[in-house]
Amino acid sequence: MKIAVLPGDGIGPEVTAQALKVLDVFVREGMPLEFEQGLIGGCAYDQTGHPLPEATFKLAKEADAILFGAEGGFQYETLPRGLRPGDALLTVRRELQLFANFRPVVAFPELVGASPLKASHIDGLDLVILRELTGDLYFGEPRGVHAENGVQVGINTMRYDEREIRRIAHVAFRTARTRRRRVCSVDKANVLETMELWRSILEEVGREYSDVTLEHLYIDAAAMALLRSPLHFDVIVTGNLFGDILSDEASMLTGSIGMLPSASMGEGTKGLYEPVHGCAPDIAGQDIANPLASILSAAMMLRMSFGESAAADRIERAVRRVLGSGYRTADIAEPGTKQIGTAQMGDLVFAA
Ligand code: NAI
Ligand code: MG
User: Fold this and answer.
1) Any idea which positions bind Mg(2+) (predicted)?
2) C-alpha closest to that of 321 among 348, 344, 297
3) Helix or strand or coil: residue 194?
């Protein structure tokens, strides 16, 4: 079980270190986990001139799973496309065809007070956003900025082919079968042709899963419904851009983006696991970032890539126990709780 560890930039290394700390519990018990670190993102650019060095890509390609931290940093935003930190992650997702991004959104009962919503609104919240990850405006051609008659024009193309839609649809319905058997597909089919195709393929695939209820929402209505009645949802399947936005929105239901793990899967068991958040330059290097999203991503890795569900359950229970004892990083702290730092949170989950 070879794991490529790619901590990246900003808070990435800080939170990934806590996930590794927790995984060490299982190494000590004899689970054959092997770790190999690689450079990715801005730090890789600084050291090698490229955000995705050849050695890192090879490591990611050969590993059974990838544990990723975060990439980015405002100092890199003026670099040419292809050399920006984010391009490294997009390349790994695309080249390894990790097209299915699972973003579970669970309200820990211990944390309902940290959500801006009323407890009764989110009590029992347990949904998963399934975001398509290798198509859409992020990759469609043509793209770019050019001049037309002396006027600058920016272009991106929303593109999906039917095969890409079909394969993510199957993942959505199969996932729903392991849960409450409801799929909500989110699109903008009233305005966008790409999404008209999306909706018709979802309908077509849905007929193969008569035991699963399929509904459709437009993205604007879905954004509203997610706040008004979050408990309504089980599996939300959507495209790359809408999934990005909806999952950040959904993170606030749980209290903090620092609580949201994710898994990006292809057709097999190989996956890339990462917190949903970015490299958070505003809090990097201060030992205040919440490492739970990264720790919970490691739990998803044990479950989805290695079939170690019992170990994954133990991590999730340990997180709940630590929260239940009142320990909080700054992002989820409330009056009456005990505020601690990143490393201490890792220590407590390890101990639990
Ligand atoms: P961000 O997710 O890094 O930060 C958004 C806000 O959430 C900030 O206020 C930050 O302090 C807070 N936050 C994030 N993670 C947290 C944690 N674990 N604990 C406590 N608070 C946390 O998104 P932002 O600010 O839009 O982007 C910052 C950089 O990260 C940019 O360079 C961006 O390109 C990159 N980024 C990278 C991603 C990735 O690696 N997959 C995803 C999103 C952004
Ligand atoms: Mg995002």
Assistant:
1) 220, 244, 248
2) 348
3) helix
Mean pLDDT of the chain: 95
Query: Is the minimum distance from the CB of 289 to ligand 1 under 6 angstroms?
Result: yes
**Same domain for 33 and 138?**
no
Q: How much distance in Å is there from the Cα of 345 to the middle of ligand 1?
A: 19
Instruction: Report which protein residue has its CA nearest ligand 1's atom 11.
Output: 280
Q: What is the DSSP string of 112-148?
A: GGGSSS-HHHHTT-EEEEEEE-SSGGGT-SS-EEEEE
Rounded Cα–Cα distance for residues 71 and 102 (Å): 19
Query: Which ligand approaches the C-alpha of residue 84 most closely?
Result: 1
125, 234: one domain: yes
**The domain containing residue 247 runs over which residues?**
116-254
Give the rounded distance of the alpha carbon of 35 from its chain centre.
Answer: 21
The predicted pLDDT at position 314 comes to 98
Task: Give the pLDDT score at 61.
Answer: 97
Ligand 1 pocket member 98 (CB < 6 A):
no
In ligand 1, the atom with minimum distance to the C-alpha of 77 is 32
248 is in an annotated binding site: yes
pLDDT in the model for residue 313: 97
Indicate which residues carry an active-site annotation: 138, 188, 220, 244, 248
- Ligand lying closest to the C-alpha of residue 92: 1
**pLDDT confidence of residue 119:** 75
Looking at the predicted complex, does its ipTM rise above 0.90? Answer: yes
Do 228 and 141 sit in the same domain of this protein?
yes
In a domain, 88, yes or no: yes
Helix (H) or strand (E) holding 155: strand 151-155
Compute, in angstroms, the gap from residue 242 CA to the centroid of ligand 2: 10
Asked if residue 109 is part of any domain, the answer here is no
